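Possible race condition, two jobs.
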Amino acid sequence: MALTDHWVPSEGGEADGLLLLPGCEYDVGREVAQEGIYHIVSIGAKKMPDLRKSPFWKPQQILDIVHEAGGFAILAHPAWSLNRPEQIEKLRGVDAAEIYNTMSGNPWNGRRADSSVILDMVSAAGTFIPSVASDDAHFYTGEQCRSFVWVQADELTEEA
């Protein structure tokens, strides 16, 4: 599991048989869809990415810094962010994209939980990005623990 609050890095660890990976969500872009709104989740970074909240970050810079820190970079909720395929295709180093996000659906946040059509269009253009699902829980009123990726590993380590 990873706790990925906006601009608030979490640390990793283990408790009661649960592995917690370090993580953070970085949101960049103005709230204008034409210019691009991007939420990039960092998971498993070996050191905290050197990022402080600023309106001047570009999504590619965030991706590069997450990778420099040894993290896995996920493009969060492209449908909710109104990302267009051509915007996603320009990004380099997206390790995965959120194909489904509980929080972006009804009754919490509209009808933009499913990003499969956008990601299919990106794939059809030749950019293949693995998919993940998540809760993106904010209110804990039923949206939590509904969307996730289950990993069966031989041991309780990040490497496994």
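Job #2 (started ~2 s after job #1):
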Amino acid sequence: ENGYIQSVPWLLSNKELEKAIELLNTGYEKTGSLQILKLRSEVQIAAGKADDAIAGLNSLEDKDESIQLLIAKAYAAKQDYESSMKTLRDSIMQDKARTQSYISLAGIHAREDNMPQAISVMQDGVNANPDDVKLRVTLAGYYERAADIDNAIQQYEAILVNNPDNLLANNNLAALLSDNRTDDASLKRAKDIADKLKIVNQPVIQDTVGWVYYKTGNYADAVEVLKQVVTAQPDVQVFNYHLGMAYHKSGNNAEARKYLEAALASDKDFPGRADAETALNSL
């Protein structure tokens, strides 16, 4: 089994998909290995032979989640999204603990910009698996895309009940609270989270920390944190924007201009671009 599987990466790197499929056909015939069948299906999908992948996978009597996901992927490769969604719904009906099936099904709805349906699928997933962090994070992300900030916040808070140190939930919750709430309790919650995250040496996390400090009026602290963020990743527009705004509120207009101009040097959009332009024009 391992010999067949280990031979495939070299063939794929040389774009020899047909040879890889032939090799895996032989391997599957000789061993009946599920791993070889799954790898063959992936290569068939990549080679534009989704029907062959579906036929091979459907020959199995017992289909676990990984097999159903592959069948759904093959249908999606053919742009047969109805069959892909039906496969995923069937997978969930077989076992409501199949968390990736919810995520994949919701993802198809989201790609079609059907956010209410994507959210509905993820709500079902969370209701069936309330302790699954990945499901709640995915649902929170869809709530954010739908501009339903209160429900997004609720999901992150629910994660932190049992996972108080979850970095992603803490980071996103602090950002949402500071960007969308103005009451003292919410801003204090965001600041407390930021203080806890300050030891995490990741630019994205530190950017959130600095921006929370900015949003809560701690401009000197914001400048100190955001300077390090921009030093680490000087080409990220939103990081320059945040540092420029922190300098602006601190009264250092020369530095504010420098970083706001850096943020606006590219035509690419970013959250806060209009505010950056307004602030720059006011200097």
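The chain has a mean pLDDT of 95.
Logs attached separately.
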